[in-house]
UniProtKB/TrEMBL annotation, chain A:
Taxonomy of the source species: Bacteria, Pseudomonadati, Pseudomonadota, Alphaproteobacteria, Rhodobacterales
The AAA domain, residue ranges: 1-164
Organism: Alloyangia pacifica
Top-level taxon in the UniProt lineage: Bacteria
One Pfam family per UniProt: AAA_31
The name this protein goes by in its record: Chromosome partitioning protein
TrEMBL record, chain B:
Gene3D superfamilies with a match to the protein in the record: CHAD domain
Family matches, as InterPro entries: CHAD_dom, CHAD_dom_sf
Spans traversing the lipid bilayer: none
UniProt-recorded name of the protein: CHAD domain-containing protein
PANTHER family in alphabetical order: CHAD DOMAIN-CONTAINING PROTEIN (PTHR39339:SF1), SLR1444 PROTEIN (PTHR39339)
Domain CHAD: 202-494
């Protein structure tokens, strides 16, 4: 099982769109996926039309296996379940540790309901906090959308700095350019510069700025499901393939 | 009550459409059908192994899908047209076909067109809360069937329970019995290789004999087409078993038919069987091919290749000859005449015991046969010649036939407790016999080999080695006979035989 976190310390970079489409693409690829909506704005659940559960606000939530498994909701798509938002995260690292430990009650409970997952995808809130640090430690990969602007360039560097300071392996970072606009020469220049500077920490796949992605809020479904033949879908497909190769190997 | 974990249901198309308007507890039922239809074919073995185990194999455009009551549906691409279960590539379909005889070919049961769809329960945000995959089968032969496969979504158990209720209320039935087949293919003929012939204690022996024969003749007839088409080797096997049952009724039910009548009938049925013997022998050799290869070292396999190539050639010729025979006017006339004879029964000459009540008749025959077996078996030791062991085997076989014919007259439990150890004894004796017969026919094969022809010397070496191994095996089985019989004839067996067939007396 792999834990993949989708994270950005800057808002409005297409992070939730990435989580939603990656989760969908991974599930379509035959992997059993649990998408955890950790962002209090609750958008990834919204895109799958899953209503947040009231029971999830309890602080001791993750100590309670039964309630945890009950909070998971099946999406409309095969192999893809959602853990809706609206929870407090105090014990989230405990949750992740238990997901890792095959002998934990949590893991056993999931296995019992055939809910053992190949991938846990975390849609993380946009701030560096104790939660983030725990999530970074627990994750196999941190996917970071970066808008190719000077400001985003700085936040990506800040994130790398945070990793260095906290002794976290920078290898876990997998950045990619998001909402890229080919017509803007600034975007092009920034992308070239960042690729030189960050090398392998940036993936080749780039998600363009596209109206289909904007319209996800209207369709309330992943672009890959609502507009499978669109350019944006092709980009998310490429991002998925590249990430799978990096995380799962060939 | 349908158990709560049922995944597969079936219902009529009209009942399904009615679900659109059914109350759904605040949810909205939505049925959507995919565009277009695709051809399908349902296949099963001739003796309906899938149907009798509640499963359905649906073949479509290269792929196949198996519906099983326990596990729902299993699908696999690129397995279309696979004839034997062993030839399926490993995968969910092969797994779902588990338990099928490796010898039986999967034959078309019926065909038609299939449409796929979904039945969903949506909430006020258009989120699916529960779903069922729909499979609508429209048979060319006239029947139709909608299969509903429930798919729960995690965290929405209530909606799933609601959907299940709705399907039940609309007349959906749990998939897994015969009804789905009869609804889809209403004109499907009945077939069972082991017909149960109802008897009661007062049934006259003559009627019992005629009933059994009249039940087995159609079994033989039902297998003719498969023998002619050479679909699989079990057709001939079952054809022969049916005729052998008839013959054993004729020889075991003594004095039920007139003496001359019995001789005449035995002759006619022997003639029918004689035409099939050689092909069956060759089938057995070819089915056992791998086992024969395993008996001799690799260096001798070349010779076996030669032998089995010859067998395969002979088999092809025998099969064609038998097919010609079964298609011939003479055969058709003869078998039709025999069927008529046992249906009408007026022209059958009755023997002295024709009017005996079946129960008394059965007890006497079974008891006598059992005593005979005991007498022979008790005399067997290491010095006993082989032909006496063969004798024992034949008597055991006859006892088994008698017990099976008359099974409806006796209590189930004690009867089964006798059959089980008897089967074990028969297995031992059967192997002893098989090894001995195989040696003889391999000897005959050797005798027929032209030594001058290239390759035949190698074949002769291999066959010689095979005979040595088979002889060793025969001796080993021979050595087990005394113990096998002792295991069969336990104090409990003896008492049960006395109780059931001899009024509890010695």
């Amino acid at each position: 099982m792999k834990i993949i976190a989708c994270y950005s310390n800057k808002g409005g970079v297409g992070k939730t769109a990435t989580s939603v489409n990656l989760a969908y693409a991974l599930a379509q690829g035959g992997r059993r996926v649990l998408l955890c909506d950790l962002d209090p704005q609750g958008a990834s659940g919204f895109y799958f039309r899953v209503k947040p559960s009231k029971k999830l606000t309890d602080t001791r939530f993750f100590e309670d296996v039964e309630r945890f498994t009950k909070a998971i909701r099946g999406s409309d798509f095969d192999n893809l379940d959602i853990l809706p938002a609206n929870m407090t995260f105090r014990d989230f690292d405990i949750f992740l540790a238990r997901m890792r430990n095959s002998r934990s009650r949590l893991k056993k409970a999931l296995k019992a309901v055939k809910g053992d997952y190949d991938v846990i995808l975390l849609d993380c809130p946009p701030n560096i906090s104790t939660l983030s640090e725990n999530v970074f430690r627990a994750s196999d990969a941190i996917v970071v959308p970066v808008i190719p602007t000077t400001l985003s360039q700085r936040t990506f560097e800040q994130l790398k700095e945070f990793f260095r300071e906290h002794d976290l392996p920078a290898k876990k970072l997998h950045g990619f350019f998001s909402m890229a606009q080919g017509v803007k020469s600034l975007h092009g220049d920034t992308m070239d510069e960042m690729r030189r500077e960050h090398g392998k920490r940036l993936m080749k796949a780039t998600i363009p700025f596209a109206s289909e992605v904007e319209r996800m809020g209207v369709h309330r479904a992943p672009v890959l499901a609502s507009a499978p033949s669109s350019g944006a879908s092709a980009s998310y497909g490429a991002l998925h393939d590249e990430l799978v190769a990096r995380v799962f190997g060939k | 009550m349908i158990p709560d974990d049922t995944k597969l249901y079936f219902m009529s198309a009209a009942a399904l459409e009615g679900l659109s308007d059914a109350p759904a507890g605040g949810l909205v039922p939505v049925i959507t059908w995919q565009e277009g239809v695709s051809p399908f074919q349902v296949r099963d073995t001739f003796d309906r192994e899938l149907r009798t185990t509640g499963r359905m194999l649906i073949e479509l455009e290269g792929g196949a899908e198996v519906l099983s009551p326990g596990s729902g549906s299993a699908a696999q691409p690129d397995v279309g047209g696979t004839r034997f279960v062993a030839d399926f590539p490993e995968g969910p379909v092969k797994a779902a076909l588990g338990g099928l005889s490796p010898l039986r070919c999967l034959l078309p049961v019926g065909a038609g067109h299939l449409r796929r769809g979904t039945l969903s329960l949506l909430d006020d945000e258009q989120k699916t809360r529960a779903r069922a995959v729909l499979l609508h089968l429209d048979a060319t032969e006239g029947g139709a069937l909608t299969i509903v496969q429930l798919q729960g979504l995690r965290g929405y158990d209530k909606a799933l329970a609601r959907l299940r209720e709705m399907i039940g209320a609309a007349g959906g039935k749990a998939f897994g019995d015969d009804t789905a087949y009869t609804q889809l293919f209403p004109d499907l003929a009945d077939y069972t290789p082991k017909p149960v012939v109802p008897l009661d204690r007062e049934t006259k022996a003559f009627d019992a004999a005629c009933d059994i024969i009249a039940a087995y003749l159609p079994v033989a007839r039902a297998n003719e087409a498969g023998v002619i088409a050479d679909d699989d080797t079990e057709f001939l096997h079952d054809y022969r078993i049916a005729l052998r049952k008839v013959r054993s009724v004729l020889s075991l039910f003594k004095d039920v038919y007139g003496a001359e009548q019995t001789i005449e009938l035995k002759g006619r049925f022997s003639d029918l069987m004689a035409a099939t013997g050689r092909l069956r022998d060759l089938d057995v050799y070819l089915l056992e091919k791998d086992a024969f290869y395993a008996l001799v070292p690799d260096s001798l396999h070349v010779g076996l290749d030669r032998m089995f190539a010859l067998f395969a050639e002979q088999r092809a010729a025998e099969q064609q000859a038998l097919a010609r025979h079964l298609r011939s006017a003479a055969y058709r006339k003869e078998i039709a005449a025999l069927c008529k004879l046992f249906d009408k029964r007026r022209k059958l000459a009755r023997g002295g015991k024709a009017d005996k009540p079946a129960y008394d008749f059965a007890c006497r025959l079974i008891w006598k046969r059992y005593r005979k077996i005991c007498t022979i078996a008790e005399a067997i030791d290491a010095e006993t010649p082989d032909h006496e062991v063969h004798e024992l085997r034949i008597h055991c076989k006859k006892l088994r036939y008698l017990m099976e014919f008359f099974a409806p007259l006796f209590p189930d439990g004690p009867f089964k407790r006798l059959i089980k150890p008897l089967k074990k004894l028969q297995d031992n004796l059967g192997l002893f016999n098989d090894y001995s017969v195989q040696q003889e026919s391999l000897q005959a094969f050797l005798g027929g080999l032209d030594g001058a022809e290239p390759g035949n010397l190698q074949a002769a070496q291999s066959v010689g080695a095979l005979i040595v191994v088979l002889h060793g095996r025969q001796l080993a089985e021979r050595a087990r006979v005394v113990d096998s019989f002792a295991a069969f004839n336990s104090a409990e067996t003896r008492q049960t035989f006395r109780d059931l067939f001899h009024g509890g007396k010695e």
